[in-house]
Amino acid sequence: xxxxxxxxxGTVRKVRPTWPVVLLGVAAxxxxxxxxxEITGAQDVASSGTVRAAIRAAMPIALAGLGGxxxxxxxxxxxxxxxxxxxxxxxxxxxxxQWGMWAGVAFALLFGAIAGGLHxxxxxxxxxDHIVSGVAINVIALGAGQYLAGLAFTGKQGGGPTQSxxxxxxxxxxxxxxxxxxxxxxxxxxxxxxDLGAIVLGLTSRxxxxxxxxxxxxxxxxxxxxxxxxxxxxRSCGESPEAAESLxxxxxxxxxxxxxxxxxxxGLAGAFLVNDSTVYREGQTGGRGYIGLAAMIFGNWRPGGxxxxxxxxxxxDALRLRSGGESVHALVxxxxxxLLFYAIYMLRTRRSQALASVALAVGLLAIFVLxxxxxxxxxxxxxxxxxxxxxxxxxxxxxxxxxxxxxxxKGSAG
Length: 414
Known about the structure:
By secondary structure, the chain is mostly helical. It has a domain at 28-34 and 44-172 and 207-300.
Protein backbone atom coordinates (compact mmCIF):
# COMPACT_ATOMS: atom_id res chain seq x y z
CA UNK A 1 0.00 0.00 0.00
CA UNK A 2 2.87 2.37 0.79
CA UNK A 3 4.31 1.97 -2.71
CA UNK A 4 0.91 2.73 -4.25
CA UNK A 5 0.55 5.82 -2.09
CA UNK A 6 4.01 6.97 -3.17
CA UNK A 7 2.84 6.74 -6.77
CA UNK A 8 -0.27 8.75 -5.87
CA UNK A 9 1.83 11.50 -4.31
CA GLY A 10 4.16 11.60 -7.29
CA THR A 11 7.11 10.78 -5.05
CA VAL A 12 10.33 10.88 -7.09
CA ARG A 13 13.81 10.05 -5.90
CA LYS A 14 15.79 13.27 -6.24
CA VAL A 15 19.44 13.97 -5.65
CA ARG A 16 19.69 16.02 -2.47
CA PRO A 17 22.62 18.33 -1.66
CA THR A 18 25.21 16.74 0.61
CA TRP A 19 26.38 18.43 3.80
CA PRO A 20 29.70 19.57 2.26
CA VAL A 21 27.77 21.28 -0.55
CA VAL A 22 25.41 22.95 1.95
CA LEU A 23 28.31 24.17 4.09
CA LEU A 24 30.10 25.47 1.00
CA GLY A 25 26.95 27.39 0.04
CA VAL A 26 26.70 28.91 3.51
CA ALA A 27 30.36 29.95 3.36
CA ALA A 28 29.75 31.56 -0.05
CA UNK A 29 26.86 33.62 1.37
CA UNK A 30 28.97 34.80 4.31
CA UNK A 31 31.81 35.69 1.93
CA UNK A 32 29.39 37.75 -0.20
CA UNK A 33 28.19 39.63 2.88
CA UNK A 34 31.77 40.23 4.02
CA UNK A 35 32.75 41.63 0.62
CA UNK A 36 29.60 43.76 0.54
CA UNK A 37 30.40 45.17 3.98
CA GLU A 38 33.93 46.05 2.91
CA ILE A 39 32.82 47.71 -0.33
CA THR A 40 29.88 49.72 0.99
CA GLY A 41 30.88 50.29 4.62
CA ALA A 42 27.41 49.17 5.77
CA GLN A 43 28.37 47.30 8.93
CA ASP A 44 24.86 46.02 9.65
CA VAL A 45 24.73 43.75 6.60
CA ALA A 46 26.63 41.17 8.67
CA SER A 47 26.22 41.91 12.37
CA SER A 48 24.89 39.88 15.28
CA GLY A 49 22.20 42.50 15.92
CA THR A 50 20.90 42.16 12.37
CA VAL A 51 20.81 38.37 12.65
CA ARG A 52 18.86 38.53 15.92
CA ALA A 53 16.43 41.04 14.41
CA ALA A 54 16.09 38.84 11.32
CA ILE A 55 15.14 35.86 13.50
CA ARG A 56 12.46 37.89 15.27
CA ALA A 57 11.08 39.06 11.93
CA ALA A 58 11.28 35.69 10.21
CA MET A 59 9.85 33.29 12.82
CA PRO A 60 6.19 34.47 12.76
CA ILE A 61 6.24 34.33 8.95
CA ALA A 62 7.92 30.92 8.98
CA LEU A 63 5.41 29.44 11.45
CA ALA A 64 2.45 30.82 9.50
CA GLY A 65 3.95 29.41 6.30
CA LEU A 66 4.49 26.05 8.02
CA GLY A 67 0.79 26.05 8.84
CA GLY A 68 0.03 26.73 5.20
CA UNK A 69 2.31 23.87 4.18
CA UNK A 70 0.37 21.35 6.32
CA UNK A 71 -2.93 22.50 4.88
CA UNK A 72 -1.89 22.63 1.25
CA UNK A 73 -0.06 19.31 1.37
CA UNK A 74 -3.46 17.83 2.24
CA UNK A 75 -5.04 19.64 -0.72
CA UNK A 76 -6.69 22.57 1.09
CA UNK A 77 -5.62 26.10 0.13
CA UNK A 78 -5.36 28.20 3.27
CA UNK A 79 -5.31 31.95 2.71
CA UNK A 80 -7.01 32.25 6.10
CA UNK A 81 -3.60 32.12 7.82
CA UNK A 82 -3.82 35.84 8.58
CA UNK A 83 -7.10 35.38 10.46
CA UNK A 84 -5.74 32.37 12.33
CA UNK A 85 -2.74 34.45 13.37
CA UNK A 86 -5.09 37.18 14.62
CA UNK A 87 -6.89 34.65 16.79
CA UNK A 88 -3.52 33.43 18.04
CA UNK A 89 -2.43 36.93 19.03
CA UNK A 90 -5.66 37.49 20.95
CA UNK A 91 -5.38 34.12 22.69
CA UNK A 92 -1.77 34.80 23.66
CA UNK A 93 -2.58 38.31 24.91
CA UNK A 94 -5.69 37.30 26.84
CA UNK A 95 -4.18 34.28 28.59
CA UNK A 96 -0.65 35.66 28.74
CA UNK A 97 -1.33 38.68 30.92
CA GLN A 98 -3.38 36.54 33.36
CA TRP A 99 -1.40 33.32 33.68
CA GLY A 100 1.92 33.89 31.93
CA MET A 101 3.30 33.50 28.43
CA TRP A 102 3.27 29.69 28.42
CA ALA A 103 -0.49 29.82 28.99
CA GLY A 104 -0.61 32.41 26.21
CA VAL A 105 1.11 29.95 23.86
CA ALA A 106 -1.38 27.22 24.77
CA PHE A 107 -4.39 29.45 24.10
CA ALA A 108 -2.84 30.78 20.89
CA LEU A 109 -2.55 27.19 19.66
CA LEU A 110 -6.13 26.51 20.76
CA PHE A 111 -7.68 29.61 19.18
CA GLY A 112 -5.71 29.10 15.97
CA ALA A 113 -6.81 25.45 15.85
CA ILE A 114 -10.46 26.51 16.27
CA ALA A 115 -10.13 28.90 13.32
CA GLY A 116 -8.44 26.12 11.34
CA GLY A 117 -11.29 23.78 12.26
CA LEU A 118 -13.84 26.28 10.90
CA HIS A 119 -11.90 26.44 7.64
CA UNK A 120 -11.82 22.64 7.50
CA UNK A 121 -15.57 22.33 8.12
CA UNK A 122 -16.31 24.83 5.36
CA UNK A 123 -13.91 23.45 2.74
CA UNK A 124 -13.77 19.74 3.52
CA UNK A 125 -17.19 19.21 5.08
CA UNK A 126 -19.36 21.52 2.97
CA UNK A 127 -17.21 21.87 -0.14
CA UNK A 128 -16.99 25.67 0.02
CA ASP A 129 -14.46 27.23 -2.35
CA HIS A 130 -11.17 27.37 -0.48
CA ILE A 131 -10.44 31.00 -1.36
CA VAL A 132 -13.90 32.16 -0.31
CA SER A 133 -13.61 30.31 3.00
CA GLY A 134 -10.12 31.70 3.66
CA VAL A 135 -11.25 35.27 3.01
CA ALA A 136 -14.24 34.70 5.32
CA ILE A 137 -11.95 33.40 8.07
CA ASN A 138 -9.79 36.53 7.79
CA VAL A 139 -12.79 38.86 7.97
CA ILE A 140 -14.45 36.97 10.83
CA ALA A 141 -11.21 36.77 12.82
CA LEU A 142 -10.59 40.50 12.41
CA GLY A 143 -14.06 41.35 13.69
CA ALA A 144 -13.97 38.71 16.43
CA GLY A 145 -10.58 39.95 17.63
CA GLN A 146 -11.81 43.53 17.88
CA TYR A 147 -14.99 42.48 19.70
CA LEU A 148 -13.28 40.12 22.13
CA ALA A 149 -10.49 42.61 22.88
CA GLY A 150 -13.08 45.24 23.75
CA LEU A 151 -14.74 42.82 26.16
CA ALA A 152 -11.58 41.39 27.69
CA PHE A 153 -9.21 44.36 27.98
CA THR A 154 -11.35 47.47 28.44
CA GLY A 155 -10.90 48.82 31.95
CA LYS A 156 -7.89 46.62 32.71
CA GLN A 157 -4.72 48.37 33.87
CA GLY A 158 -2.52 49.01 30.85
CA GLY A 159 -5.16 47.61 28.49
CA GLY A 160 -7.94 48.95 26.32
CA PRO A 161 -10.18 48.12 23.37
CA THR A 162 -7.20 47.83 21.03
CA GLN A 163 -4.54 46.26 23.24
CA SER A 164 -4.04 43.94 26.17
CA UNK A 165 -2.32 44.69 29.46
CA UNK A 166 1.43 44.00 29.37
CA UNK A 167 2.46 40.34 29.06
CA UNK A 168 5.58 39.02 30.79
CA UNK A 169 7.76 37.69 27.94
CA UNK A 170 9.72 34.46 28.05
CA UNK A 171 13.26 34.75 29.33
CA UNK A 172 16.13 34.63 26.87
CA UNK A 173 19.29 32.55 27.03
CA UNK A 174 22.63 32.13 25.29
CA UNK A 175 24.28 28.90 24.20
CA UNK A 176 27.33 28.85 26.52
CA UNK A 177 30.78 28.59 25.02
CA UNK A 178 29.70 29.11 21.41
CA UNK A 179 28.22 32.57 21.93
CA UNK A 180 31.25 33.75 23.94
CA UNK A 181 33.70 32.61 21.26
CA UNK A 182 31.54 34.13 18.51
CA UNK A 183 31.39 37.45 20.36
CA UNK A 184 35.18 37.51 20.60
CA UNK A 185 35.55 36.83 16.88
CA UNK A 186 33.04 39.55 15.94
CA UNK A 187 34.94 42.13 18.00
CA UNK A 188 38.20 41.46 16.09
CA UNK A 189 36.86 42.97 12.83
CA UNK A 190 38.65 40.37 10.71
CA UNK A 191 37.49 39.86 7.16
CA UNK A 192 35.13 36.88 6.83
CA UNK A 193 36.10 35.43 10.25
CA UNK A 194 34.40 38.26 12.17
CA ASP A 195 31.42 38.09 9.83
CA LEU A 196 31.12 34.38 10.56
CA GLY A 197 31.42 35.11 14.27
CA ALA A 198 28.70 37.77 14.07
CA ILE A 199 26.27 35.40 12.36
CA VAL A 200 27.00 32.59 14.84
CA LEU A 201 26.57 35.02 17.73
CA GLY A 202 23.22 36.17 16.39
CA LEU A 203 22.09 32.56 16.10
CA THR A 204 23.24 31.50 19.57
CA SER A 205 22.46 34.48 21.82
CA ARG A 206 19.28 35.97 23.33
CA UNK A 207 17.24 33.00 22.19
CA UNK A 208 13.77 32.17 23.51
CA UNK A 209 12.10 28.77 23.88
CA UNK A 210 9.70 29.82 21.11
CA UNK A 211 12.57 30.18 18.62
CA UNK A 212 14.01 26.77 19.49
CA UNK A 213 10.55 25.19 19.49
CA UNK A 214 9.73 26.77 16.13
CA UNK A 215 12.88 25.38 14.52
CA UNK A 216 12.17 21.94 15.96
CA UNK A 217 8.69 22.09 14.45
CA UNK A 218 10.28 22.40 11.01
CA UNK A 219 12.33 19.27 11.61
CA UNK A 220 9.28 17.48 13.02
CA UNK A 221 7.13 18.50 10.04
CA UNK A 222 9.74 17.21 7.59
CA UNK A 223 9.99 13.90 9.46
CA UNK A 224 6.23 13.40 9.82
CA UNK A 225 5.24 14.36 6.27
CA UNK A 226 8.13 12.68 4.43
CA UNK A 227 9.19 9.84 6.69
CA UNK A 228 5.99 8.40 8.20
CA UNK A 229 2.94 6.58 6.85
CA UNK A 230 0.71 9.27 8.35
CA UNK A 231 2.54 11.97 6.40
CA UNK A 232 2.42 9.92 3.20
CA UNK A 233 -1.34 9.65 3.56
CA UNK A 234 -1.67 13.39 4.15
CA ARG A 235 0.35 14.12 1.00
CA SER A 236 -1.63 11.58 -1.00
CA CYS A 237 -4.79 13.54 -0.13
CA GLY A 238 -3.19 16.62 -1.67
CA GLU A 239 -1.96 14.85 -4.78
CA SER A 240 -4.77 12.42 -5.66
CA PRO A 241 -7.51 12.04 -3.04
CA GLU A 242 -9.46 9.67 -5.29
CA ALA A 243 -6.48 7.32 -5.56
CA ALA A 244 -5.90 7.57 -1.80
CA GLU A 245 -9.57 6.75 -1.13
CA SER A 246 -9.39 3.72 -3.40
CA LEU A 247 -6.53 2.44 -1.24
CA UNK A 248 -8.56 2.76 1.97
CA UNK A 249 -7.34 6.18 3.18
CA UNK A 250 -9.94 8.20 5.10
CA UNK A 251 -9.38 11.39 3.09
CA UNK A 252 -11.75 13.53 5.17
CA UNK A 253 -9.96 12.61 8.39
CA UNK A 254 -6.50 13.47 7.11
CA UNK A 255 -7.65 16.75 5.58
CA UNK A 256 -9.36 17.78 8.83
CA UNK A 257 -6.28 16.95 10.91
CA UNK A 258 -3.92 18.78 8.56
CA UNK A 259 -6.02 21.96 8.40
CA UNK A 260 -6.49 22.04 12.19
CA UNK A 261 -2.71 21.65 12.64
CA UNK A 262 -2.33 24.46 10.10
CA UNK A 263 -4.49 26.76 12.22
CA UNK A 264 -2.63 25.85 15.41
CA UNK A 265 0.74 26.68 13.82
CA UNK A 266 -0.60 30.02 12.57
CA GLY A 267 -1.86 30.71 16.09
CA LEU A 268 1.61 29.92 17.43
CA ALA A 269 2.97 32.52 15.02
CA GLY A 270 0.61 35.01 16.66
CA ALA A 271 1.94 34.03 20.10
CA PHE A 272 5.47 34.79 18.87
CA LEU A 273 4.38 38.34 17.98
CA VAL A 274 2.85 38.88 21.43
CA ASN A 275 5.92 37.52 23.21
CA ASP A 276 8.20 39.74 21.12
CA SER A 277 6.21 42.95 21.71
CA THR A 278 5.02 41.99 25.25
CA VAL A 279 1.44 43.02 24.40
CA TYR A 280 -1.46 42.17 22.11
CA ARG A 281 -2.34 44.97 19.70
CA GLU A 282 -5.03 45.34 17.07
CA GLY A 283 -3.51 44.92 13.61
CA GLN A 284 -0.45 43.26 15.09
CA THR A 285 -0.14 40.61 12.39
CA GLY A 286 0.41 43.23 9.66
CA GLY A 287 -0.20 40.85 6.76
CA ARG A 288 2.37 38.30 7.90
CA GLY A 289 -0.05 35.46 7.20
CA TYR A 290 -0.08 36.39 3.53
CA ILE A 291 3.71 36.73 3.48
CA GLY A 292 3.99 33.31 5.12
CA LEU A 293 1.89 31.92 2.29
CA ALA A 294 4.25 33.55 -0.24
CA ALA A 295 7.27 32.13 1.61
CA MET A 296 5.70 28.66 1.47
CA ILE A 297 5.26 28.97 -2.32
CA PHE A 298 8.85 30.22 -2.65
CA GLY A 299 9.95 27.14 -0.71
CA ASN A 300 8.13 24.85 -3.16
CA TRP A 301 5.81 23.51 -0.45
CA ARG A 302 8.76 22.11 1.52
CA PRO A 303 9.93 23.00 5.06
CA GLY A 304 13.56 23.77 4.12
CA GLY A 305 12.66 26.08 1.26
CA UNK A 306 9.99 27.75 3.39
CA UNK A 307 12.53 28.45 6.13
CA UNK A 308 14.92 29.93 3.55
CA UNK A 309 12.20 32.18 2.12
CA UNK A 310 11.15 33.38 5.57
CA UNK A 311 14.79 34.08 6.46
CA UNK A 312 15.16 36.17 3.31
CA UNK A 313 12.19 38.31 4.26
CA UNK A 314 13.33 38.56 7.88
CA UNK A 315 16.84 39.61 6.86
CA UNK A 316 15.68 42.38 4.50
CA ASP A 317 13.19 43.61 7.09
CA ALA A 318 15.87 43.62 9.79
CA LEU A 319 18.20 45.69 7.59
CA ARG A 320 15.43 48.20 6.99
CA LEU A 321 14.61 48.55 10.69
CA ARG A 322 18.18 48.70 12.00
CA SER A 323 19.92 51.12 9.66
CA GLY A 324 17.36 52.22 7.10
CA GLY A 325 18.56 53.53 3.75
CA GLU A 326 22.29 52.82 4.16
CA SER A 327 22.01 49.03 4.46
CA VAL A 328 19.20 48.84 1.93
CA HIS A 329 21.45 50.76 -0.48
CA ALA A 330 24.11 48.05 0.01
CA LEU A 331 21.46 45.37 -0.47
CA VAL A 332 20.67 46.85 -3.89
CA UNK A 333 24.24 46.13 -4.99
CA UNK A 334 24.03 42.56 -3.68
CA UNK A 335 20.78 41.93 -5.54
CA UNK A 336 22.28 43.30 -8.76
CA UNK A 337 25.28 40.97 -8.52
CA UNK A 338 23.10 37.95 -7.73
CA LEU A 339 20.85 38.76 -10.68
CA LEU A 340 23.87 38.86 -13.00
CA PHE A 341 25.03 35.45 -11.77
CA TYR A 342 21.50 34.13 -12.20
CA ALA A 343 21.36 35.50 -15.74
CA ILE A 344 24.59 33.70 -16.64
CA TYR A 345 23.22 30.47 -15.19
CA MET A 346 19.94 30.76 -17.13
CA LEU A 347 21.46 31.92 -20.42
CA ARG A 348 21.47 28.49 -22.09
CA THR A 349 18.03 27.30 -21.00
CA ARG A 350 15.81 30.40 -20.67
CA ARG A 351 17.26 33.33 -22.62
CA SER A 352 14.24 35.59 -22.17
CA GLN A 353 14.41 35.20 -18.39
CA ALA A 354 18.18 35.73 -18.50
CA LEU A 355 17.78 38.98 -20.47
CA ALA A 356 15.10 40.20 -18.05
CA SER A 357 17.46 39.48 -15.14
CA VAL A 358 20.27 41.43 -16.84
CA ALA A 359 17.99 44.40 -17.46
CA LEU A 360 16.86 44.41 -13.83
CA ALA A 361 20.46 44.05 -12.61
CA VAL A 362 21.55 47.03 -14.72
CA GLY A 363 18.71 49.08 -13.30
CA LEU A 364 19.69 48.20 -9.73
CA LEU A 365 23.34 49.02 -10.45
CA ALA A 366 22.27 52.41 -11.79
CA ILE A 367 20.32 53.08 -8.60
CA PHE A 368 23.35 52.08 -6.51
CA VAL A 369 25.76 54.30 -8.45
CA LEU A 370 23.51 57.35 -8.73
CA UNK A 371 22.35 57.42 -5.10
CA UNK A 372 24.10 57.41 -1.73
CA UNK A 373 21.13 56.19 0.29
CA UNK A 374 17.66 54.81 -0.37
CA UNK A 375 14.88 57.18 0.67
CA UNK A 376 13.04 56.18 3.82
CA UNK A 377 9.70 56.08 2.02
CA UNK A 378 11.01 53.23 -0.15
CA UNK A 379 12.89 51.18 2.44
CA UNK A 380 9.62 49.92 3.91
CA UNK A 381 8.86 48.18 0.62
CA UNK A 382 12.22 46.37 0.49
CA UNK A 383 11.15 43.07 2.11
CA UNK A 384 8.06 42.82 -0.08
CA UNK A 385 9.90 43.71 -3.30
CA UNK A 386 12.65 41.22 -2.53
CA UNK A 387 10.11 38.47 -1.93
CA UNK A 388 8.24 39.28 -5.15
CA UNK A 389 11.50 39.34 -7.12
CA UNK A 390 12.54 35.91 -5.88
CA UNK A 391 9.08 34.46 -6.53
CA UNK A 392 9.07 35.88 -10.06
CA UNK A 393 12.48 34.39 -10.87
CA UNK A 394 11.83 30.93 -9.48
CA UNK A 395 8.11 30.54 -10.20
CA UNK A 396 8.72 28.23 -13.17
CA UNK A 397 10.52 25.72 -10.95
CA UNK A 398 7.67 25.43 -8.43
CA UNK A 399 5.30 22.49 -8.21
CA UNK A 400 2.21 22.67 -6.05
CA UNK A 401 0.31 19.54 -4.92
CA UNK A 402 -1.80 18.36 -7.87
CA UNK A 403 -5.14 18.42 -6.05
CA UNK A 404 -4.45 21.61 -4.07
CA UNK A 405 -7.59 23.74 -3.93
CA UNK A 406 -9.86 21.13 -5.50
CA UNK A 407 -13.15 20.27 -3.80
CA UNK A 408 -13.20 16.58 -2.90
CA UNK A 409 -16.31 14.48 -2.38
CA LYS A 410 -16.27 11.03 -0.80
CA GLY A 411 -16.97 8.31 -3.34
CA SER A 412 -15.69 10.30 -6.30
CA ALA A 413 -13.14 7.55 -6.94
CA GLY A 414 -15.98 5.36 -8.15
